Amino acid sequence: MTSSALASATGAAGRSVARIQRHQLRPTSAAAEASFISPRYLPLLVLLAVAGVAWDSQWLFPSTPASADPAEQTVLGSARRFVPFAVVAREQVSPTSFILTLKAPANKLPGVASLWNVFDLWCVEVKQPQIQVAREYTPLPPPPDAAADEDDTLRLYVRAVRGGEVSTYLSRLSPPSPDGAVAGDTVELRGPHGEFDLGSRLGGRGDRVVFLAGGTGIASALQAAHAVLPLPRAPSMTIFWAVRSRDEIYRGGGSLSPTNPSSPSSSSASWWNWSWNPFSGRSSEGPGSWSGIRAEALTVGTEDPSPVSRELLALKEKYGDRLDVRVVIDQEGTAVRDSDLAASLTCRPGGPETTHSVEGCRFHSQTAHLGMVDGAPNAGKRGLFRQSDCACSSSATSAAPGKNVFVVSGPEGFVEAYAGAKVWRDGGQLQGPVGGMLGALQRKNPDTLKDWIVLKL
């Protein structure tokens, strides 16, 4: 074969291979249809995409309440997820505790102020974003001098605990700088979660509330005072506030001396210790010593009160003798004694005698509270209480139902020491039987708590 013929054959072969390659790369009509969306499906896909955005938007940016529940008709309750709140203020209470003021994001829905009309006691979850854990915190109620434009703020009373993931995280948060050069931090909240409905338990006959608060548990006591003191039947209230140091009560520690030198002075007896025995410092005085409460009184006119004491004193000034506030200080060896509790359980002179509850009434029977979770039976919401839910109302007696209420709030060891431990069952905490110091008083005198409902937070 000559060179010209060879070249001609080679060129023909190359063109043939190129045609084969182009043929292989060109998709068939079936493949083309599989590779592209048919125009007739585009309207359907666009409709689905728009529906998906609208569905997600009702959670991210709710414009109208999705529920008739008033707790969900707020910027916090409607989201059903964690909502970012801006830190707008921080006030130091003691070297280890502080109050954070948080502002809700702008939204067409009402602020969080309406939640105070839904619950007596309630809390929110606070998320620690680095390790994705959450803890419950009880908001402080609005101070007596709160402005109307503060209805979108919440205040949390926090004590930084060594090893506490969330409290340590919160201790690092700051509001914006005064000149605005440094932006403030944000914190994510979820809730609200209702705790117990006090008004429904007081009913028409209960006229006394005693609240035993340990540390920042005073936030729940302030919520209770905010809820029950304005009631038309004018119940009275005693608050015992147990703190680690006097700094929590007075700025700089104050100068008042303890009024109970016979109380335990050893730090090993501290109620902050899980194993503390509240009876270790009990005096041997007889029943005659139960005629009055001996714990130190917080009185109007106290010099330089802490921010929390200032709010307690404002309530005391407003309601007078109907509110009695007593303080005990761990570092000074003072504690709430059994004689203090016995005196506080004495009904107010001239007050109505409370009725005996129908066994099993979920509002007025202590037995029915044994297996109850926080907030039951009406999720802590006043509006969900119905008279028909109270078994006492359907009983033969014509007397109005109602009980006095004793509440304990604080660290687990504190609650256990005074009212007995809560019980874990099926992954949740139940109230459990009344124990601790209150249980001992009841064993000594079975009628001690017959007109009382004991609640543990």
What do you see in this structure?
The chain folds into two domains: 70-194, Elongation Factor Tu (Ef-tu), domain 3 (Beta Barrel); 198-456, no CATH class. A seven-stranded antiparallel sheet has the order 4-3-7-1-2-6-5. The protein has ten helices and 15 strands. 37% of the residues are buried. It is of the alpha/beta class and 457 residues long. It has helices at residues 3-25, 29-35, 42-60, 165-171, 198-202, 218-228, 307-319, 338-344, 412-419, 436-444, and strands spanning 83-94, 97-103, 122-128, 133-137, 139-140, 153-159, 186-194, 208-214, 236-243, 296-297, 323-329, 404-409, 423-425, 428-430, 452-456. The chain is globular and about 85 Å long. It starts with a helix and ends with a strand. Keywords: FAD, Flavoprotein, Membrane, Oxidoreductase. It comes from Colletotrichum higginsianum (strain IMI 349063) (Crucifer anthracnose fungus). It holds the Pfam family FAD_binding_6. It is found in: Membrane. One of its GO terms (molecular function) is oxidoreductase activity.
Taking all Cα atoms into account, the compactness measure Rg is 32 Å
* Overall number of domains: 2
Proportion of beta-strand residues: 15-25%
Q: Which structural class should the secondary elements be placed in? A: alpha/beta
Strand order of the largest sheet: 4-3-7-1-2-6-5
Order of helices and strands: HHHEEEEEEHEHEHEEHEHEHEEHE
Average pLDDT number: 81
**Alpha-carbon distance between the two ends:** 104 Å
**Shape verdict:** globular
Task: Count all strands and give the number.
Answer: 15
Helix segment tally: 10
Largest sheet: 7 strands, antiparallel
Cofactor: FAD
GO cellular component, one term: mitochondrion
GO molecular function: oxidoreductase activity
Keywords: FAD, Flavoprotein, Membrane, Oxidoreductase
